[in-house]
Design goal:
mainly alpha; 80% helix; rod-shaped; DUF2934
Length: 95
């Protein structure tokens, strides 16, 4: 998955920045590196949110299909999918 690969890359960059920050004594360089790390951290949080939304969307669609594609219950399926995804449920049987 493209988002997961990007997330792993950014997390690796953040770890490298943290390690480098511990070895830098120049204040200006440390400040720039800290700002870089903060930027990476914000990007990581956005990607995590996108991954969560995508997983929830896919699971809600599965639940909706399994229920026979009923009209007007989209929120119900979304909330159930969100609980499953956040709870780490691997149960795709719908039971």
């Amino acid at each position: 998955m493209h988002l997961m690969a990007e997330l792993e890359r950014l997390e690796h960059q953040l770890e490298l920045a943290r390690r480098a920050l511990a070895m830098i004594s120049d204040g200006a360089t440390a400040a720039r590196l800290l700002a870089f790390g903060n930027d990476i951290g914000a990007r990581i949080e956005r990607l995590k949110a996108e991954c969560l939304e995508g997983a929830t969307r896919r699971r809600a669609y599965q639940l909706w299909e399994k229920a026979g594609r009923p009209c007007g219950r989209d929120r119900e399926f979304w909330l159930r999918a969100e609980r499953e995804v956040l709870g780490g449920s691997d149960d795709l049987s719908g039971g």
